[in-house]
Amino acid sequence: MANFAERLDLALRRRGFSGAQVAAELTRAGIPITRAYVSQLRTGKQTNPTLQVLRALASCLQVSVGWLVGEERLESGAADDPRLGGLAGLSEGSQDVVRGVIELARRAEGLSEPAAPEPAAETLVPAPALAAPQLAALGDRLRGLRLAAGLSAERAEAALGRGAVRIEAVEAGRAAPPPALVERLLDLYGVAALPVREHVLSLARGEREPAWWDAGSVPVWLATTYALEQRASVIRTYHPQTVPPLLQTEDYARAAITVAGLDTLGQDSLDAAVGLVLARQEMVAEGRGPVVWAIIDEGVLLRVIAEPRVHLAQLDALIGHAKRPNVSLHVVPMQDPAYLPRTGPFTLWRFPEAFEPDIACAHAVEADELITDPAAVEAYHQAFAKLSVTTTTRDETLEVLNTYRDRLTR
After folding, report:
1. For residue 329, what are the β-bridge partners?
2. pLDDT tens-digit readout, 137-170
3. Which end of the chain is less enclosed by CB atoms within 10 A, N or C?
4. In 3D, which of 246, 206, 211, 154 has the Cα closest to residue 45?
5. Which long-range contacts (CB under 8 A, 24 or more apart) does 156-162 make?
6. Residue 332 phi/psi, 5° resolution?
7. Are residues 229 and 235 in contact, defined by beta-carbon separation less than 8 angstroms?
8. Quick one: which H or E segment has residue 392?
9. What's an example of a GO molecular-function annotation for this chain (predicted)?
10. 192-249 confidence digits (pLDDT tens)
11. What angle do CA 188, 191, 196 make, to 5 degrees?
12. Domain end marker among 210, 236, 257
């Protein structure tokens, strides 16, 4: 892939696009990549884009894939049609006229229609050089996805084709599969959600170091949720049933997981599930992390899911959170609420990159549903905005919390 970085940089400059704009365009087109990954490709720190990413970049930048990876042609489209030869660059109307003349001439000469050229074989881009922790985390994740799909290693290898990959070596962390092959594995394992696919592929591309949520014991949808949460600059979350996990005490979290069911976090033990909740809370420590804008229903404060001391400690914790500069806590009143959305709990993430679109997350019964469609995300924003104008102010929130605390201590 000689000169790929230089040509990508040239195409970006000629079109006047930033890496963030290209990343946003590709993400909206259904191929989620980050600004950081575009930057790494542009500077030559990454040289292993998948064929899907190559084609999307070429389309976005209006160049051919061939030119992008080293051929001499710049513009895509007409130059790729072997029947047009040196006429590439003409307008679309002129190209149609030329095609018509060629067709008439061939008929006059009694020539048959030329056979379409054979498509080039899609060779896999070589695998990146992954460090041992990356190999181990990727292998662990792919093993979990295969088992969740109910496939044996032999069946997975057979589905991919002879000699495509040794599943056992990849899952054991002894071999790095090319990112294009990881994409095929995700297809085979039924992983369709774009943020989830990008979460796995970013590790396969060597774009990031593994984190605690990359452990195989954390379901991939939950790992993706945690990773997005950690990158967010603003988190908006609505919870009508329990205190949001980011604001729960350890004992309250234990009670909330018990009533919701251990399977909701995909863990084998209650201690492990509580450990996940506590691990994700580190980012909201005072003076660190994103702005958390949380809205809870007043019924959350009335609902008894544990003994009084647990609820009292949780109220104290909420009062402390409500005083933090990076936490904005509000309560939807029980009496005459102006608006109640037809939904369960949901979260919206906004990211520091200006061109990175927001993502919504509907916290469903068995797993979180990650939502990237702009219209659907905007609907959740509208719901949150309507809730926001009907809730308590910061000062009123403290009054409500202290009122419930006084009731509980009587």
Report:
1. 294
2. 999 999 999 999 999 999 999 888 866 678 999 9
3. C
4. 206
5. 156/185, 156/188, 159/188, 160/184, 160/185, 160/188
6. -85, 120
7. yes
8. none
9. DNA binding
10. 888 999 999 999 988 889 999 999 899 999 999 999 999 999 999 999 999 999 999 9
11. 145
12. 210
